[in-house]
Amino acid sequence: MSISINSSDTKINIDPVGKSVPRIDGRGIVTGQTKYVFDVSFPNMLVGKMIRSEHPHARILSIDTSKAEKLPGVRAVITAKDTHNIKYGSNEYFFPHTVDQMAIESEKVRYIGDEIGAVAAIDEETALEALKLIDVKYEVLPSVTDVLEAMKPGAPQIHEAMNNIGVILPVNFGNPERAFKESFHVREDKFYASAAAMAALEPHVCIGQWETFTNKITLWSSSQAPFKCRESLAKTMKMDLNDVRVIKLAVGGGFGGKLEMLPMDFAACLLSKKAGGLPVKICYNREEEFSFSRRKHGMHYTIKSGVTKDGVLTAITGEVIADGGAYCSYGPTVMAAAIMRIFMVYKIQHFRISGYRIYTNTPISGAMRGFGGVQSGFAIESHMDLLAKDLGLDPIEFRLRNITTPNMITVNKMHLTTNGLKECIEKASEAAEWKKKRSNPKYFKQGVWKRGVGIGIAADVMGSKMYKSHESAGAIVKIEEDGSVYLFTGAADTGQGSNTALSQIAAQALGVKYERIKCKSGDTEITPFDTGSFASRVTFISGNAALRAGKDAKMQILEVVAEEHKINISELDIVAEKVILTKDNTTLMTFDAALNLCYSFNYGKQIIGRGSYNPKTTPIDFRTGEGNVSGSYGFEAQIAEVEVNVETGEVKILKMWDAHDIGKAINPQSVEAQIEGSLAMGIGYTFYEDLQFRNGRVVNPNFANYRLPRSIGIPEMESIMVETNDPEGPFGAKGMGEASLLPTSAAIANAIEDAIGIRIKELPITAKKIIKAIKEKEISEEKRV
Amino acid sequence: MHKVNLTINNKNFPINLNGNETLMEVLRNQLGLTGTKTACEESECGTCTVQINGKAVLACITMACDLEGDNILTIEGVADEDQLHPVQQAYLDYGAVQCGFCIPGMIMSTKALLEKNPAPSQEEIEYALDGNICRCAGYPKIFDAVKKAGQVMQKGWQKVNETENISREKLSSINQGLTYEEYVKISAVANPEAQK
């Protein structure tokens, strides 16, 4: 789909939904004026640093901070004795037993970097000097850093959990054993998807201030979920929610890493209290960011499927073992997503996959973009290609025989309403000229460079009730006397452009141009509640709140117009900056004139629209996996064309196609940007992003050794938007921030197999692994001869 | 502690240095010019890119004390009052901005490239921007923006060559792709009185 560029001359966007209007914060960003928490400083601000464990597993015997406290320039030192020792977690509502982390650990450390205290000083040098003066006595305990070792009986116990299993998630339907017996063919595969880093460019950074006499905490934090952060902070500080204010400014990327309160957020506030209320800033450097924030779970994924002679899936079983690191974080929902996403994609009646999330003495695994779906996407979509191959079926044909359809209820009671999966597959396959290229021995197979194409498909939720019983979003539309409109949303724009999309939705609902809107987001004291930016939920859920607030404001204006003109309100509407009579679409007055009326001598009525939305879902029963988790579902198909050098193992991606059921594109340019960003992130994860550990320590905590996608190596990409106009979505829109990332690794792995007949089952796919596999294949073929 | 005069965005800044400060530290911590970001402080991410005498330079590994007499340009000095530079406008128009943290550095690298080569090939763009990481990975949109900005800047140049009696206002809107020396040269043609 080609997008018409909104030239800078076009300043007016009436009916903004569906148009690529410029980013609402764009001029600030391109001129460097937009402020991130990273850029903010206050007079007399102190610099905070965390005191961290040097051991992967140890008991704390004593901490002597007296020397550090005496160092000139040090203003505060805190340890666990200054705290209430309250544990916090991320999945409190469904998994209360996974609430296992203390902001400042008091008795035991469980990974290298575990926080046991913090210091604040007048500058960074002094703070670092103070850290050296902290004397901690440990009793070092045996540690375990490998996930499979940690599960064995007799492995060191990291928490109270048996065999270090922090989360167990059995998902179970029908009778797979019987179905396997009746199947024409059954195969099992084992995959491994590596740990990765979110690596947002703006590191974790916060400024905490505790006004000691009014007992009020303000935290500026680079956060994806300010309200969640407030909740954890209030809980651990034993404060009321409205005694804690969390403010998010522009956020320099999150990708899941900024969904939780980190101990640094807690420490900045407590240090401020101890320092008499001076603001304290804590900012991670890149090494801390890689080593001590959050990471993607490394996952071992075993999957076994049965099929009929016609290529219809009969049953799936399997096991997922995930390296959870030292604490649970968002582990339970990551496991749920890793296992249960398959129900949105494939029709399956007999199913049993059990998930085990294992504690190890390594940095904490959390929620990275895709929530476990990237790892499972690699396993499942690679496995499906192998099944198709066994049956001699084209991978697309095999998928078309098994995919979900519109208006169906899955075996675990998910209600798939609009479903553009089939259309996505067809459109992607057409654009990529699949039939011409796939398994065609005449298609660029000469020489050392061999070409191939591969497909991967996926589906995603838009929202998930993870840490509360509800998942509501709120919005307020406030209209000033001069006609300017303020949208207040609790949603946290972390760079995806949600403030822009929500403003477009509110403007359209109100019937005015986009340029009237100013947007204020993510300030827990000013904006309405919102659970945060995760699970591709913002456009769908926060968008529905913005839609309702815009409509509410419109009705308030129309009430005044109706009263003044003695017309029934149902005969009026506001469209494209005009109040119209709905019976013949004639203009009664301009929007500005209607607003003048509202703020006139007689009426003096302030226009403050409100909107709240909570998706209609049913709670998931985590003993079985049953429940309708999302108000709607998004779908997508992706094709990669690669060229593989059989002598060097080098892989070039020639082009990628991505067809995505996004319901309706509120801002096509932003949708494309999300798709392209996902593809590039997926390419990075497939080939080189791999967070490595030795004895529990991250060994590649910098951009030189942990490679990210850069401009060289980004292939041509084509995004195809499939608009299914979901009746539940705002103007038909669905969420789409994550789905494009889910099948990328598998699409590439499948294309590599099409090119050279080699199957790589372990990420990242390196040249070394490809060469090794080619040699092994040659040897086994020689043996056969 | 010694005094250094730095020329940043065509303004003079007398500042006191210990001698071990990087340009990035001076910009962000001493002068409050926080438009220049950093994501690694070890020359790996390109986020802190500024222009020194027209060249793209990493502020995190450039010592500030060496820069007396040099012409330092940061993202704050790229736009002409409220008129965005063609590179900035193109980034905005083509949706190249996501979280925006890499964008100041990306724009500085782009500007340095286009001032030397306003019609770069795809390969030349990729090579010039390879030092700038965008984790949102908005590279395809960035490539589009770079190409468009180059065209706009090139058109500006041609117009300048064609027309000698160009008005001062018009000049200021098209001059932004020029180096400072070229700008002065053309200004002299356009508005001889102002130079006296």
Can you describe what's shown?
Chain A is of the alpha+beta class. Chain A has 3 domains: 46-141 and 200-254 and 258-292, Aldehyde Oxidoreductase, domain 3 (Alpha-Beta Complex); 298-465 and 620-784, Aldehyde oxidase/xanthine dehydrogenase, molybdopterin binding domain (Aldehyde Oxidoreductase, domain 4, 2-Layer Sandwich); 473-613, Aldehyde oxidase/xanthine dehydrogenase, molybdopterin binding domain (Aldehyde Oxidoreductase, domain 4), CATH 3.30.365. Chain A has 20 helices and 32 strands. Chain A has a 7-stranded mixed sheet, sandwiched between helices. In chain A, strands 9-17-16-15-10 form a 5-stranded mixed sheet. The longest helix of chain A is centred in the last third of the chain and has 28 residues, at 538-565. Chain A is globular and about 95 Å long. Chain A starts with 25 loop residues before the first helix and ends with a helix. Mean pLDDT of chain A is 95; it is low at 1-10. Chain B is α+β, with helices and mostly antiparallel strands and 196 residues long. Chain B has 2 domains: 2-77, Ubiquitin-like (UB roll); 86-195, DNA polymerase, domain 1 (Orthogonal Bundle). Chain B is built from 8 helices and 5 strands; from the N terminus they run E-E-H-E-E-E-H-H-H-H-H-H-H. A 5-stranded mixed sheet of chain B has the order 2-1-5-3-4, with helices on one face. In chain B, a hairpin with a 2-residue loop joins strand 1 (2-8) and strand 2. Mean pLDDT of chain B is 84; it is low at 160-181 and 186-196. Chains A and B meet through helix 1 and helix 18 of A and helix 2, helix 3, helix 4 and helix 5 of B.
